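fwd from M.: "can u put these together and see what the complex looks like"

so here's what she sent:
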Amino acid sequence: MKTLVKIELLKLKRSTLVPLSLVGALTPPLLILVGLLKANYIDQVGPMNFEAIMQEGNLYTILLFYPILYSILAAFLFTRDYTEQTIKTMFSLPIHKKHYLHAKFLLYFLWTLGIGMLSYITMVVVALISGAFAVQINILLSQLIYYLISNLLLSLSFTTIILSALLSKNIYVPLLLAASICLINIFLSNEPLAYYFPFSYPYLITRTKDLFFTRPELLGFLFTIITGLSGYLLSLHIFQSRDIL
Amino acid sequence: MQTIIQVQNIRKTYQNHVALKQCSFELKEGKIYGLLGRNGAGKTTLLNILCNYKKASSGEVLLFGKPFQRDLLKDIGVMIEGPAFYGSLSGQENLDIIRQVRKLPKEDLLNALKTVDLLEAKDKLYKHYSLGMRQKLYIAQAIMHKPKLLILDEPINGLDPIGIAHLRRLFHKLTKEENTTIILSSHLLKELEQVADELLILKDGRLIKKGEKHTIMQNMEQTYDLQVDEPKKAYRLLQNTGYIKKRTITGTSLQLTLEKDTPISHVLSLLLKQDILIHQVDRKNHDLEDLFHALLKEVVL
């Protein structure tokens, strides 16, 4: 497995995914920075609360931007061997289908974690640059924990997008689905139903104070986990049962 | 001689189309097998099934006496339907992926690159490789681990004459020194004729012929060109003898295609008895291309 993950990383050398992920991770914080600078120097509203800035960052990333970014990532990682026809070269080797897919899943989760962390750190830097007030360690840590859980659940729910990528063997279907998810996320914002939509729910975690304690939160958590596991198990089943070419 | 591949009654269907029909054969170690057939005859489907890219709808394939397991690919080298590597990686980096999975020393990678004459271009990005270089890299990945079985689909596509000759020598070396079994599909019949020991001929998804190349070629219809003093008389004489399948006259030359198992001596003695002077007898040497054309015309071989 270690070799396979290493190989998956090697495959990404000089690929467009690396700069794309960097740009993707940095875009929401930089947009917020522009907004904060405008508020400070043009609208003269004055500095904002640190927690409010971080929550705005969560809205931009988890709810609006990451669905598109993660679908590109998922489609790239899981369909590249089909689009470049390297699947036949890879499977002329003694690699088990299950191990091949697991290496990709592992890399996908590590990559989304990396993107999330980069965004979060940049958000903190942006907040500090903008002169945010009420910067407290406990807020910083609690925001980080909620953000990590939220990002992990979003990545998990996107195993369904991975499934669509494996079924369609191209990038278009996952992108179309991601765009639809973003639209639904906007449509459901501030609606109680958002808890039951597995792609909106991860964002709601970042706003909560009592994680999993209320009924909609617990149900939302379960729906997201079930969606993620279904996506993973179906991907595995379809990939293993289907012909390679 | 050990059996490397046993194929028993395999059939492959795609929705309403039958790509392979009840194919059965055995391949022995240390031989080069040429796989022959028109487009759509089922060659690539058969190769895809042999290396488990596709599963047969029914029937069984045994590799080294065992049903397919992915671990068996340790002893198999595959190149099917043109080269495919990562464009953003160099030739060496692409081969390094293969090397790491196969757990081979770095030395094997460099040897493979040297064998296909690609050592100087190893650091060039794959997307900048020419078609011939890509094909060479594809061959390198197939032979890097010194496989017992090589499955090659159109391996000489894009290679220059020197590259083709080099590959031909490599195939012979692998079979003689390493006892490698090679199954080779190609549309370049002259090449196949030069390298193959045995032929497998597919038509409409069915294996219609398998055997030693020389035996199959010898069993082809015999065609002779006779220079005689009275070709029209000879032409009439040979009518209804049961010896001749086809006859034509061009000037003083008489072209004869004999019926199967008819020796030319029968024909010659018949003509001599009738005082027809025979100046010259030439046997037409059939090549694989003639065999292939005969096959297309559905002539009984």
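replying to her w this: DSSP finds ten helices and no strands in chain A.
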